[in-house]
Amino acid sequence: MIKGKNILLGVSGGIAAYKVLELCSSLKKEGANLKIIMTKGACEFVSPLSFETMGKCIVYSDMFEGHHDRVYHIDLPKWADVFLVAPLSANTLAKMTYGIADNMLSASLLACDKDIIVAPTMNTNMLNNKATQENLKKIKERGIHIINPNSGLLACDTRGDGRMEEPVNIVKYLDYYFTKKI
Questions:
Q1: Residue 1 lies in a domain
Q2: What is the pLDDT of residues 44-93, one digit of tens each?
Q3: pLDDT in tens, 138-179
Q4: Which domain of life does this protein belong to (predicted)?
Q5: How many domains are there within the chain?
Q6: Is residue 36 part of a domain?
Q7: Are 74 and 124 in contact (CB under 8 A)?
Q8: pTM of the predicted model, to two decimals?
Q9: What amino acid positions are annotated as catalytic residues?
Q10: Domain membership flag for residue 168
C-alpha cells in the first residue's frame, strides 16, 4: 500500500539519522514518492547528498537558502499523503509541542494538516525526562502517531530506551497505516 504514496520525510539531528538512509532505500523500493527535509543538526550527522541519492529527490534544509520559487514549508506538507519524522529528536519534539517554527522542518510541521508520524530517538535520560514525556503525551493527544523507540545499547554507551525503531519496522508501520488508515 506504500506504492505511489507521497511521503514527506523529516530528519532531525541525532545519530540515528544514518539508519534513515536504509529507510529511504526501502521506501523507494516499495514505490513511495519521497521529499525530504533535514535539520541543520541532521546534516551534521549525514550529508544531504546521501539522502538525495537514496531518496532520489531534492533535500530541503534551509528556508532562507535557494528554492525561492515556491513557499516550500507550506507546499511540501500539501504534497504529502503523510509526514514522517525519523529520527525525532528531543529538540524537534519540543518545537512541535510548542509550535516553534524556526527551521524548515519545524515550520513545515506547523503548516501540516495531514497525518504526522514520528519515530523518537534519544538518550534514555532525555527520553524519560518529565519534559519529554509531557511533550510526547501532548502530541499524541493532538493525534500525532508515535512509533515508540526500542531498548538497547545507545550511541552514548548506555543501555535503555531511546533507540529508533528499525527501518524495516517503520516501513511495516507505514504499510499498515496506509492499509488500515490508523
A1: no
A2: 999 999 999 999 999 999 887 765 677 788 899 999 999 999 999 999 99
A3: 999 999 999 998 767 667 778 767 678 999 999 999 999 999
A4: Bacteria
A5: 1
A6: yes
A7: no
A8: 0.93
A9: 156
A10: yes
